Amino acid sequence: MKPLPRMDEVAGSGRPWGLERGPAPGRLCWMQKSGFRFVALPAVLLVAAFVLTQGRPWTPMRIAGVAVMLPGFVLWGIAHVQLGDSFSVRAQARRLVTTGLYSRFRNPIYVFGGLGMAGFCLAIERPYYLLAFAVLIPLQMVRSGREAHVLEEKFGDQYREYRAKTWL
């Protein structure tokens, strides 16, 4: 039986999974590079929601929280994967991503991350934690404004056309 190829042998083979270029220098693996590293936080919060409410009845608030949290975090992870190498902590304009969730939302990471966190607050039956959004939303608005400015400077009319077709 032939052994499985090493990661560096697969790179450049045209195979799926985003391995065409191989892992970036300094990266642990292609999963980290492609955005799967963001699955850890939602998974931890999901487990925490169930541990913190273990033995409690499934109230309407808890059900609503899980119903908002699960799709919110799944879509948040998908947005990270679709953003790929363009993700950065500081506003940078590497490339203009206009496909997938980004074809409808300019900031799906903020939108779905916020929904996931709001759902978590409800799932653990602590709705007063939602008050944190009074601080978080203005901060995200400032951040998205900076990102829009950087993208508009680099991509000009292409970004303005994209912005006109999307929301949030």
What does this molecule look like?
By secondary structure, this protein is mainly alpha-helical. The chain has two domains: 1-30, no CATH class; 35-165, Four Helix Bundle (Hemerythrin (Met), subunit A). The protein has helices spanning 7-10, 30-34, 40-52, 60-83, 108-123, 133-155, 157-165. α4 packs antiparallel against α5 (108-123) and α6 (133-155) crosses α7 (157-165). The longest helix is centred in the middle third of the chain and has 24 residues, at 60-83.
Topology:
Blueprint lengths: L6 H4 L19 H5 L5 H13 L7 H24 L24 H16 L9 H23 L1 H9 L3
Query: Radius of gyration in whole Å, from Cα?
Result: 19 Å
Number of alpha- plus pi-helical segments: 7
Low-confidence stretches: 7-34
Q: Approximately how much beta-strand content do the residues carry?
A: under 5%
Helix-strand topology string: HHHHHHH
Helix content: 55-70%
- Which class of secondary structure composition applies to the elements? mainly alpha
Q: Given the C-alpha coordinates, what overall shape results? A: elongated
State the separation between the terminal residues, measured CA to CA: 52 Å
CATH architecture assignment name of the largest domain: Up-down Bundle
Count of the separate structural domains? 2
CATH class of the largest domain: Mainly Alpha
The major beta sheet can be summarized as: none
CATH topology of the largest domain: Four Helix Bundle (Hemerythrin (Met), subunit A)
